Amino acid sequence: MGPKVVRGSRVKPGSQDRRSSHPLLLTRGGASRSGSDGSTGRQSATRTQGTTKDNHTALDQIRGHEKDATKLKVTPSSLALIYETIMAQHKQTQGDSKKVRVATKQLQVAVSKIAKSCSEIGERNATMEARADVFETELGAVAQQAGMHDTQLVDIQ
Length: 157
Prior knowledge:
The protein is mostly helical. It has a domain at 52-156. The chain has helices at 16-19, 35-48, 56-62, 66-69, 76-92, 97-121, 125-145.
């Protein structure tokens, strides 16, 4: 049985190794967690379970924060899908390959920036979801520059 979670206490990023390797499972503290905080974590954990391990290889190509990506509303599978779509676009494009290369680089920067800031601050789920919205907006801008349509980013939701 893991250590008890004290009401109102924050779980520091370093302490996640004691309880679970999956960061989202940290919110499953039981009755000591507030309602909205706990329910958000449980939904996210259910949605990303089973996909995290499979997509680590694809995620490593994007940035080195594969664990932090699971803290966001964006799932690892959707990140990998977006990355692969942009890379496929890159290969198909002859004349505008430089434009797509720039967009791909911006995608990498956006992913690492959002994931790193969430990790450093150690924020709660509600704030992380707000950051995920910012993340989606940045991805939308990257996709437009790469010549992709918005419909190809629906999987982010």
